[in-house]
Amino acid sequence: MEAIMKKGSDVLLQIHVIPSSKKFGIEKYDSWRKRLYVTVKSPARKGKANKEIIEEFSKLFNKEVKIVKGIKSRDKTLVVKDVEYKKIMEIIRGKLK
Predict the structure, then answer these.
(1) How many domains does the chain have?
(2) Within a domain: 97
(3) What whole-number distance in Å separates Cα of residue 55 and Cα of residue 36?
(4) Beta 65-69 vs 75-80: how paired, if at all?
(5) For residue 53, what pLDDT is reported?
(6) Residue-level pLDDT, tens digit, the chain, 97 residues
(7) Has residue 27 been placed in a domain?
(8) 55 φ, ψ to 5°?
(9) How far apart, in whole angstroms, are the C-alpha atoms of residue 75 and residue 86?
(10) What's the Cα-to-Cα distance from 90 to each of 21, 87, 93, rounded to whole Å?
(11) Contact, 83 vs 63, CB < 8 A?
(12) Angle at 43 between CA 68 and CA 31, to 5 degrees
């Protein structure tokens, strides 16, 4: 899955955000765009969707998560700090529908 990349002791995630959805979730992997499609309840206004993304992914992985690219875009790059690539892959595969 090319949306998930190892970088040193961190893991980068390439996501596409769908705001104002019914719930938070990792919906699918788009192999053409090489991104995970992520739904969030919050609207894309005043950083609300970004805040939800950081909170939900931090809970999901039990690690620090930051947005490193795409603060004002639906296409974002997240970094998960100090985590094993294999663990992230297992969690993501378990969440994909």
Answers:
(1) 1
(2) no
(3) 17
(4) antiparallel
(5) 98
(6) 899 999 999 999 999 999 999 999 999 999 999 999 999 999 999 999 999 999 999 999 999 999 999 999 999 999 999 999 999 999 999 988 6
(7) yes
(8) -65, -50
(9) 23
(10) 25, 5, 5
(11) yes
(12) 55
Ranges assigned E (strand) in 1-97: 4-7, 10-18, 25-30, 35-39, 65-69, 75-80
In three-state secondary structure terms, 82 is: coil
Report the alpha-carbon distance of residue 30 to residue 6 in Å, rounded: 19
Full residue range of the structural domain in which residue 50 is found: 4-90
> Do residues 53 and 67 touch, judged by C-beta distance below 8 A?
yes
Written as six digits, the tokens of 35 are: 């991104």
Structure token digits, residue 64: 């620090």
Instruction: Give, as one character, the DSSP assignment of residue 45.
Output: S
Tell me what pLDDT residue 34 has: 96
Q: State residue 97's pLDDT score.
A: 62
- Residue 58: give its domain's CATH number: 3.30.1200.10
